[in-house]
């Protein structure tokens, strides 16, 4: 079949689709011995799951399910949800916003596709614009979303080795602002900044000062700052450090219901100025008519009756914080006295391990572990646009610790045995 340029680009296999196929095959094999530490699935916190089932039963009992199934919403998504969320964000953070600052999409992934291609790529004046990721490594799901080639630029991080009280080998990536400012000053093709906070894959939560600095730079260069808040506050709220959420009319804040435990309901949220919201609505109208209404309808009552944020604070956060603590304890026990470093665990549910003196690449480690039915994600995939010659790019792996402690222990011990 002869595909268009779009078809050719989007049907190419790439590193991450191959990886996702591996993970899918592993899951479908029903092999009970598989140690699955790859993928981005949230865990299902039992009491949170019960609450969603209860909400579903309420929709059925109140005979409101037909509104969800039987009607198209507008192209920016379910109005009742948009109004409820705007009210909640306004009261929680004192932001000056209304439902007109909120658009929905079929998952954040779909929203990023729309946003990146609205803001970058080939422009009507013949120029070509790019999105700058100020801190690599960054979420691999962005890498192949551009309709044109060469749409993303990333900056290598500064690496700070941390002095931990317990003696645990830890480090943290810091934004190299000198390099970011140099790129912005010299490359007029940068048309947006984008950062995930908490970061997938590292669990980093860039500091409030780093956010402020990015916000100022974005305003100075008259470009938007996109903050991917898929794991952040107010929901799901997987942040284990002090961090404040910021929004203003130059920030495009992306949120999602997925990491609350509802990835199958495909609900992504964009909070932005009304121009961006209208643009998203127009693209949604062409692409999907209207986004999925099931996710928004399931949580609107919880938001209106102030039940969603307490659920996040009292159930979701402690659930993941405990898993994060278990992950750190296992790391300290299993990799004690080895040249292996853990990125400071500040948010989301990923461990990012750096094998400082690794003799094999993270891809080779992935292949060897796969032979033993242990699945992780090799780190090089997340260094979008960073040159292959940088050794660090091949020395890191991502592990999803939203699993049980014995599976995590098995996986970490298998990794240690391969790297010994
Ligand atoms: N952003 C980040 C940082 C993610 O990790 C993910 C999913 O893993 C997404 C966005 C996409 O989430 P969804 O499309 O499920 O809302």
Automatic annotation (TrEMBL):
This is Valine--pyruvate transaminase. The keyword Transferase applies. The lineage of its organism: Bacteria, Pseudomonadati, Pseudomonadota, Gammaproteobacteria, Alteromonadales. Residues 175-415 form the Aminotransferase class I/classII large domain. It comes from the Bacteria. It holds the Pfam family Aminotran_1_2. Coiled coil: none annotated. One of its GO terms (molecular function) is valine-pyruvate transaminase activity. SUPFAM superfamilies: PLP-dependent transferases. Its cofactor is pyridoxal 5'-phosphate. Keywords: Aminotransferase, Pyridoxal phosphate, Transferase. Its EC number is 2.6.1.66. NCBIfam families: PRK09440.1-2 (NF006964), PRK09440.1-5 (NF006967). It is an enzyme of class 2 (transferase). InterPro entries: Aminotransferase_I/II_large (IPR004839), Class-I_PLP-dep_aminotransf (IPR050859), PyrdxlP-dep_Trfase (IPR015424), PyrdxlP-dep_Trfase_major (IPR015421). It comes from Pseudoalteromonas rhizosphaerae.
């Amino acid at each position: 079949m002869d595909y268009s340029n779009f078809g050719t680009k989007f049907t190419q296999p790439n590193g991450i689709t191959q990886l996702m196929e591996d993970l899918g095959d592993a899951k479908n094999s029903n092999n009970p011995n598989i140690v699955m530490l790859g993928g981005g699935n949230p865990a299902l916190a039992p009491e949170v799951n019960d609450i969603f089932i209860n909400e579903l039963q309420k929709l059925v009992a109140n005979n409101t399910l037909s509104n969800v199934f039987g009607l198209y919403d507008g192209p920016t998504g379910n109005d009742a949800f948009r109004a409820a969320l705007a009210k909640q964000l306004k009261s929680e953070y004192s932001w000056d916003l209304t439902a007109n600052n909120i658009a929905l999409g079929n998952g954040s992934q779909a929203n990023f596709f729309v946003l990146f291609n609205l803001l970058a790529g080939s422009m009507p004046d013949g120029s070509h614009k790019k999105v700058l990721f100020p801190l690599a490594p960054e979420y691999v799901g962005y890498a192949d979303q551009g309709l044109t080639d060469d749409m993303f630029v990333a900056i290598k991080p500064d690496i700070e080795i941390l002095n931990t009280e317990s003696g645990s080998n830890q480090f943290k990536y810091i934004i190299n602002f000198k390099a970011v400012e140099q790129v912005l000053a010299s490359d007029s093709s940068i048309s947006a900044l984008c950062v995930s906070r908490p970061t997938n894959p590292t669990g980093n939560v860039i500091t409030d000062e780093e956010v402020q600095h990015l916000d100022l730079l974005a305003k100075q260069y008259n470009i938007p700052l996109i903050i991917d808040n898929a794991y952040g506050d107010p929901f799901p709220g997987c942040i284990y450090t002090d961090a404040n959420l910021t929004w203003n009319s130059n920030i495009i804040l992306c949120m999602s219901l997925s990491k609350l435990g509802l990835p199958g309901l495909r609900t992504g949220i964009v909070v932005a100025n009304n121009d961006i919201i209208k643009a998203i609505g127009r693209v949604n109208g062409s692409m999907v008519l209207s986004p999925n209404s099931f996710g928004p309808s399931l949580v609107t009552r919880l938001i209106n009756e102030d039940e969603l944020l307490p659920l996040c604070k009292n159930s979701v956060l402690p659930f993941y914080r405990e898993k994060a603590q278990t992950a750190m304890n296992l790391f300290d026990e299993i990799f004690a006295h080895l040249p292996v470093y853990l990125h400071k665990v500040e948010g989301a549910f990923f461990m990012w391990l750096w094998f400082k003196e690794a003799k094999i690449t993270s891809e080779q480690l992935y292949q060897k572990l796969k032979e033993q039915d242990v699945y992780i994600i090799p780190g090089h995939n997340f260094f979008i646009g960073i040159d292959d010659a940088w050794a660090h790019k091949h020395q890191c792996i991502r592990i999803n610790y939203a699993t049980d402690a014995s599976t995590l222990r098995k996986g970490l011990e298998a990794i240690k045995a391969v790297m010994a």
